[in-house]
Design a protein that fits this description.
Layout: H1 13-17, E1 33-36, H2 42-54, E2 59-62, H3 71-79, E3 85-92, H4 98-111, E4 116-121, H5 125-131, H6 139-154, E5 159-162, E6 167-171, E7 182-186, H7 190-199, E8 202-206, H8 210-228, E9 236-246, H9 251-254, H10 256-263, H11 271-278, H12 282-293, H13 297-302, H14 306-312, E10 314-317, H15 318-330, E11 335-340, H16 367-381
Parallel strand pairs: 1-2, 1-11, 2-3, 3-4, 4-7, 7-8, 8-9, 9-10, 9-11
Antiparallel strand pairs: 5-6
């Protein structure tokens, strides 16, 4: 989701800042939040997962983009914690076969004592075709096939499934599990959200305004649940947000680049723009997009208002962020996740997101600022 490579000298820094955790601490009360550990090398990500548990965070999510795979650090974190749920946040369904995914997930479920939240996504077309050499097709159908195979495998029977995109013959998972892993779908568009309501244990949305949650997400989840004849009781409806949590409201200014990124990332999800429109910022989002397409990133950033940041992200003081979280819960979400982000940062989310000639306008990646952002989020929002 972030830059495709780390800046020079970046890899050595974590060893100067972190010592691997080996002591289990008694966690405080659950604060109901998830923490996304994106843009961190494996060692500090594992360390922050332990700190999140101590601070009372409900879950710690390990991404799989370019910084590390998901299952390796997640397994290490699971062995050094005892309560916090361990999420893969998220793993692409075209990144490995359904059988390999079942084996990795079942292993982590065993080693974590049943704490795995298996986050799955279709990811951006460029990741699928450019990185994995796979054909990106029928994303909702592909996800249905993949989840159906995994669900059957986790139930312990012989799996024979002939899907439109994914198929498996004569596979049996010879592993005893405390219980099947919970499957969460990365879902923003209505059709994928409906599929989550129909088949999954939870969903992880991203960059969804309060209005989008009320008008699109919750109704789509209900339609999906009705399709399969089940209730949403026990379903975990969650959304994640870039976050710059500060001791005052300076985080609103420092998070403007995150709005620029997601409001223009139509190659990742057209729903990001729809989220801004639902919140009443359609005109501003279009103006930002026009500036980006023209190669004027600094001008695009100047179009982002603090009001837009406040409506689309988790930024500013802890009091402001807590109030926003409560509003989302009142709208029907059962959980909120935070991705602490480097102050003042913005960057392309995929190849072609920003015009090549505009990349010289990008701010330098601020790794110490990123670490501070994680520190502040955990400290200020801990239970």
């Amino acid at each position: 989701m972030l830059r495709t490579r780390l800046p020079e000298g970046h890899r050595a820094e974590p060893r100067l800042i972190f010592t691997p955790a080996r002591i289990r601490f008694a966690p405080v009360d659950d604060n109901g939040l998830g923490l996304f550990l994106t843009a961190l090398p494996a060692e500090p990500a594992i360390e922050f997962a332990g700190r999140a548990e101590v601070a009372g965070f409900r879950s710690a999510w390990f991404p799989e983009i370019t910084f590390a795979d998901s299952f390796g650090p997640a397994t290490a974190a699971a062995r050094q914690t005892s309560r916090v749920a361990i999420g893969t946040g998220v793993v692409g369904v075209w990144s490995r076969s359904a059988v390999t995914m079942a084996l990795q997930a079942a292993t982590l479920q065993q080693l974590s004592g049943g704490r795995l939240l298996l986050g799955l996504g279709v990811q951006a077309r460029g990741y699928v075709e450019g990185w994995h050499g796979q054909r990106y097709e029928k994303p909702v159908t592909a996800m249905r096939d993949f989840v159906s195979i995994l669900t059957a495998a986790f139930q312990g029977g012989l799996v024979n499934y002939e899907g439109q995109v994914f198929s498996v013959r004569n596979f049996h998972l010879d592993m005893e599990l405390p219980q099947p892993p919970k499957i969460y779908l990365a879902a923003n568009g209505p059709r994928m959200v409906e599929l989550a309501g129909e088949l999954a244990d939870g969903m992880v949305g991203w960059f969804q305004s309060l209005e989008y949650v009320r008008e699109v997400t919750i109704p789509a989840l209900r339609r999906g649940a009705e399709r399969s004849g089940r209730s949403l009781n026990g379903f975990d409806a969650t959304v994640g947000f870039p976050a710059v949590v500060t001791r005052d409201d300076s985080g609103l200014e420092l998070a403007k680049g995150q709005v620029l990124m997601y409001a223009t990332a139509l190659g990742s999800s057209p729903a990001y723009l729809e989220s801004a429109r639902a919140a009443g910022f359609g005109g501003e989002a279009e103006a930002i997009g026009e500036r980006v397409r023209a190669g004027d990133l600094r001008g695009a950033l100047a179009e982002v208002s603090e009001e837009m940041v406040a409506a689309l992200l988790m930024a500013g003081s802890a009091e402001r962020v807590r109030d926003r979280i409560e509003r989302y819960r009142a709208a029907g979400l059962t959980g909120v996740h935070l991705l602490p982000s480097p102050p003042g940062a913005f960057y392309p989310l995929y190849e072609g997101h920003f015009p090549v000639e505009s990349l010289a306008q990008l701010p330098e990646f601020d790794y110490p600022g990123l670490v501070k952002s994680f520190d502040e989020a955990i400290t200020l929002l801990g239970a």
